[in-house]
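Internal tracking record. Fields below are filled automatically when a chain is submitted to the structure queue. Please do not edit lines marked as system-generated. If the sequence contains nonstandard residues, flag them in the REMARKS field before resubmitting.
Queue: standard
Priority: normal
Entity type: single polypeptide chain
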Amino acid sequence: MRRAAVSIPSNIAEGAGRKSPKEFCQFLSFALGSIAELETQLIISGNLKYITQNQQDELLKTLSEIRKMTLGLKKAIEQKNFNSRM
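SYSTEM-GENERATED OUTPUT FOLLOWS
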């Protein structure tokens, strides 16, 4: 879980350091994959009673917000890149 959690901002940072918007979006997609991985691990942790239902709900809510922000950033970059080609 720690590895997936660290991977999210790491991929965003690495993508931001790339030269093209297309590469940035690719790394944002990697971050979204790590979000999905972490979400799955949180669900499993709750099912196995490693965390309480309240903890699981709170963490999944926070992760959902992070997913929305990441998707929003990806869409904004894609839209800006699309408009700049026209």
